TrEMBL record:
<comment type="pathway">
    <text>Lipid metabolism; fatty acid biosynthesis.</text>
</comment>
<dbReference type="InterPro" id="IPR013747">
    <property type="entry name" value="ACP_syn_III_C"/>
</dbReference>
<comment type="similarity">
    <text>Belongs to the thiolase-like superfamily. Chalcone/stilbene synthases family.</text>
</comment>
<keyword id="KW-0012">Acyltransferase</keyword>
<dbReference type="GO" id="GO:0006633">
    <property type="term" value="P:fatty acid biosynthetic process"/>
</dbReference>
<feature type="transmembrane region" description="Helical">
    <location>
        <begin position="55"/>
        <end position="75"/>
    </location>
</feature>
<protein>
    <recommendedName>
        <fullName>3-ketoacyl-CoA synthase</fullName>
        <ecNumber>2.3.1.-</ecNumber>
    </recommendedName>
</protein>
<dbReference type="Pfam" id="PF08392">
    <property type="entry name" value="FAE1_CUT1_RppA"/>
</dbReference>
<dbReference type="InterPro" id="IPR013601">
    <property type="entry name" value="FAE1_typ3_polyketide_synth"/>
</dbReference>
<dbReference type="Pfam" id="PF08541">
    <property type="entry name" value="ACP_syn_III_C"/>
</dbReference>
<dbReference type="InterPro" id="IPR012392">
    <property type="entry name" value="3-ktacl-CoA_syn"/>
</dbReference>
<dbReference type="InterPro" id="IPR016039">
    <property type="entry name" value="Thiolase-like"/>
</dbReference>
<dbReference type="GO" id="GO:0016020">
    <property type="term" value="C:membrane"/>
</dbReference>
<keyword id="KW-1133">Transmembrane helix</keyword>
<feature type="domain" description="FAE">
    <location>
        <begin position="114"/>
        <end position="403"/>
    </location>
</feature>
<keyword id="KW-0472">Membrane</keyword>
<keyword id="KW-0812">Transmembrane</keyword>
Amino acid sequence: MASERDLFSAEIVNRGIESSGPNAGSLTFSVRVRRRLPDFLQSVNLKYVKLGYHYLINHGIYLLTIPVLLVVFSAEVGSLSKEDLWKKLWEDARYDLATVLASFGVFVFTLSVYFMSRPRPIYLIDFACFKPDDELKVSREELMEVARKSGKFDEESLQFQKRMLMSSGIGDETYIPKAVMASSENTATMKEGRAEASMVMFGALDELFEKTRVRPKDVGVLVVNCSIFNPTPSLSAMIINHYKMRGNILSYNLGGMGCSAGVIAVDLAKDILQANPNNYAVVVSTEMVGYNWYQGKDRSMLIPNCFFRMGCSAVLLSNRRRDYSRAKYRLEHIVRTHKGADDRSFRCVYQEEDEQKLKGLKISKDLIEIGGDALKTNITTLGPLVLPFSEQLLFFGTLVWRHLFGSKTDGSSPSMKKPYIPDYKLAFEHFCVHAASKTILDELQRNLELSDKNMEASRMTLQRFGNTSSSSIWYELAYMEAKESVRRGDRVWQLAFGSGFKCNSVVWRSMRRVTKPSRNPWLDCINRYPATLN
């Protein structure tokens, strides 16, 4: 196992010039110690690998059976010449017609059962990401000025927020609601929440319906996820009312499920589409920044102020076979991991009141460690579904060796003690990792051994739009489309994690080469990226 020292990382932080005290006028520094993500090379649980293979076997039984039948049939037919084969078929049909008809009936019945029981493919027709107006754009310095003018924060809280902002990986062109910038009063009101929700949701949906040429009344399933803001009537009801959708629409509203809820919403929409053929489903993922704006002094609750920004995505899914030709992507796999049974995981992102009874979202210092454990479980389960056979063989073989003989290899080399970690770059061409913070992206890149190119979309999304919660993975895919980097057959891995604690993966396969779309939140600035943040 890794030593305790290996679980931490340290960095020296320049805190600027001391303004008072005996050291006034001199530079001051502090040493910041953080927990790293758990080293995936040192700890992989066999039961999650078995779970992944269980999924694979459930969906791959036909792939194993059909080749065997073909081999048997070929061996039987291969021993006969063409003339003998036709003669045998004619004689059998002539003298044993009942057997031939019965065999043909069994064949047709088996084929019908197979195609009827086979899950319908789920297509992603298109998606849209909301881009706010420039008047809502704010730089890091402007955000600090807003915080200072509000009069709600003492000097220590302001300095803490400044340090967090400067090390966050967030740039100077993100967006926050006008209510936060223009008012020092409480922005966590139902009025402000509804106003922000209307702006971002209707903006994304207007673009989606325009791009896909689908009428709102044609949508049969609606799933909306927003973690913090959950009014009555619900956000899904707001959308139905605004677009005058049909009365028999199946609508769902997911609340309190954090930044990974976008994948959960897609999974729910998929299950509903499987039970309701020839339907469209719309998935809306968003978060209300103003409603969750914290104006107290608890540092663990000030962190969301520094990272979360406005954003919303709207995705159109279909199970109609005639949409095959115009779909952008096909859904391949969804793997969900929930660590809520563990108390530390359950409370690591927790909404509560501080000592002054001000409501906020509290972020635990153990977030990196807990998130890493959930991520490790998720990717270990996902591996058997997506990795090439050679990678699976190496991974599974070294893992079994470690579990069977690990206690007897104390004198052997380190490579014999730790399992082989598969190269996920062989399974996917594109990675959309939830843009939570620079620190988390750094740790994920190190542990998964991803290249800077693999992480480009996540880092640039964090820099340009900030942490937009559950919609961030769609801004990342929009970045790839604006760069025209998605080719036919490419596999896209969207990985999200959030409160609960949950880590969820969704895998898409590109149906065609995706050209630069006519509407995209990156179009006016894509030529400036990738860029380095100063």
